[in-house]
Amino acid sequence: VQLQASGGGSVHTGGSLNLACAASGLTFDDYAIAWIRQAPGTEREVISCISGSSRTQYNAESVKGRFTISRDNVKRTLYLQMDSLKPEDTAVYYCHRPPNNWGPGTQVTVSS
Fold it and tell me: Which end of the chain has fewer CB atoms at under 10 Å, N or C?
């Protein structure tokens, strides 16, 4: 299984980024996939998760109303649209298929 996240970058407060995670080596629509982030010196935080069918979604309180998770099962790709970014969103963002599959992460930096 391979998960490759992309789309990170540096933006100012209030900016937007759209992360993508391309998956291979699995029957993509059979699995829930999550976005997880980790800032320096902090624990990993599950910020969004989506079921294989997209019918069930979870968003952490810290990102509700600002981030939108989605997936395209034909393209085998997971997305995270991030709007109204804040400096506290600065972290490395990972896509994760529980329990053991992780992508290498993409850096998001938000400056004030």
Answer: C
Count Cβ atoms below 10 Å from residue 33 Cβ, excluding itself: 24
Q: How many CB atoms lie within 10 A of CB 111?
A: 11
Tokens of 104: 């290498």
HEC readout, 56-67: CEEECCCCCCCE
Question: How many CB atoms are located within 10 Å of the residue 64 CB?
Answer: 11
| 3-state DSSP assignment of residue 74 | coil
What is the rounded distance in angstroms from the CA atom of residue 2 to the CA atom of residue 40? 24
- Mean pLDDT by runs of 10 across the 112 residues of the chain is 95 98 93 96 96 96 97 97 98 94 94 95
